[in-house]
Amino acid sequence: MPTKEERRAELTAVYRQARSCTRCPELASTRTQVVFGSGNADADLMFVGEAPGAREDEQGIPFVGAAGKLLGELLAEVGLTREDVFVVNVLKCRPPGNRDPLPAEIENCSDYLMRQVELIEPRVICTLGNFATKLLRAEPTGISRLHGQAEIRVIGERAVRLYPLFHPAAALYTRSLLDTLRADFARLPGLLELALPEQPRPVEPEPAVPEPAIAAVPEPQPVSEPQPPPEGPNERQLGLF
User: Fold this and answer.
1) How much is the pLDDT for 230?
2) What are the pLDDT digits (tens) for 137-146?
3) Which domains does the chain have, with CATH numbers?
4) What is the pTM of this model?
5) What contacts 102, CB < 8 A, 6 or more positions away?
6) How far apart are CA 170 and CA 198, in angstroms?
7) Does the CA dihedral 164-72-193-179 come out positive or negative?
């Protein structure tokens, strides 16, 4: 198991890699900066949003606009602060015009998120909205059917309690969603008190199979009379197929 210092160092290395990422040419050419994530790098609770907006792109920190303010208020209501959690997005770069992330962009960026989960080691991951929920559940069921329902999922190589929530940005415009989001947030302290799910066992490498020993070729024995040549081996015996 890596130490806390080793995990921090590796997370820093992943950040430096992401900061110069050009996997999505359009996003790389239009961003101001990469928005890697912020908060407590040893947090038990991680939030995964969709993508940076204009203010996030300017500051390099996720959830700093109105949605971020609401997120802070909801955390305070359950006795938490932004410094207690780690907040990231599916995409690390702002899509032009705040358009939806494209499937190829999500795929290009997903390994950064998986490495964050691996190195931060959260116990609970809250997916905010459809994009994060569908990515981490690896199936298309929408947030309206899943919100407030915790389940154990293996994310990368780590088993966590995945807890889908409505995105705070959506709740800003719909009062009923805000009430639902607040009620779902109220369950977070109880989820954090539960034991860590049993972790998947690491895959053991297959043991090497030794090659069979090659029998020594006996020395030819002298014969008194010429013998007919033996029939040669066929292709299967030679291992050609």
Assistant:
1) 36
2) 999 999 999 9
3) 8-193 (3.40.470.10)
4) 0.83
5) 95
6) 34
7) negative
